[in-house]
């Protein structure tokens, strides 16, 4: 079975001015995310593209990933997406393997209203087309995501972290007495980090 790749992190932020000068009020974003999750994420129809096209529609021939979850955490919406085995998905997998820092950017439509701080505030008619396209330069301040590879062995940059190392760490933690547990956990974590 081939390795599976995922991206996860903050997909969208509310109540915070982004690089495009836009602010998404939390109630508006939350209502629209809830609709998007119900209509797109749950029935496995929530796709995103590599790059950020102009139009509101997601082109399936350009899809690189499928969003599998989108959850509110404070004023942020944290997402997880599975990288697909499509041509654009292959590019994303290569970027993850090379240790690239990827960002995500949502795509939507709606009217904007300027407030007293010169921010463009997104209005109630906001419609979310996709929660996340993969981009090099996201507009939301913290919308950089972690590329994660799940498979038989874990490779990060030049270091090789093998499954048996993780398994051995897990066994040592399970064997530790409650008194030693914190120390053993810390040592095993340091040990795994030293292999990265």
UniProtKB/TrEMBL annotation:
Pfam families: Peptidase_S77. InterPro entries: Peptidase_U9_T4_prohead (IPR005082). This is Primosomal protein. It comes from marine metagenome.
